[in-house]
């Protein structure tokens, strides 16, 4: 890296211009930065295999954490391992992917590399430094997070042998992370409301708010500021004297808790 780190906004601008086809010389002239410095920052993003879209979406704090982590002295083996972390960070969000599987992929290519426990430690350290986010605190009985998993469950009809696909409804209480899962025929409004009601009976109570992802059954119009809740679902919530607070679009942290539950569900032996 350059001896004196420049403004993070300017760093993001460097990579955006470069991936748009602007030459390093032209970027240097346009931003008033030496060509060597421009080249060093471009090489940094290439080394971590980051796309222009990923860099654009990173917050200034996340970008600063990434540079801070990169500037610490590291062994060649650790440097090689960390080259995989941005890729692993995308893969771990997929259903069924675990740190164990990611380590096996890494270890198959580097049999002299880190063992599983060390791999998990360094991956966790990298995540803390590159994703400095505020911890979300949840109060008991405050919110019930609701979603469909997106990955269907296949069952066999005992009488006909026919394979049938079912949707998987999941909800989780924010504080206790007590999870309810139900397979149903579809994501249609009737099935969605029935599953939600079954969950309330399962929990034996009603939270202060229901927090669905932007499902068509729950939200008729998505919006970052004023989503429009389905009228039938709104009536359902009113009947149970609770509120509906849809997750905000483009705010993945809002629904992280239910997505973690989905990951656990599909990593369980019965699936």
Automatic annotation (TrEMBL):
- Range of residues in the leader sequence: none
Q: Integrase catalytic domain: from which residue to which, for each copy? A: 128-271
**Pfam families associated with the record:** rve
InterPro entries the record matches: Homeodomain-like_sf, Integrase_cat-core, RNaseH-like_sf, RNaseH_sf, WH-like_DNA-bd_sf
Q: Which domain of life is it from?
A: Bacteria
- Which protein are we looking at? IS21 family transposase
Q: Which gene encodes it?
A: istA
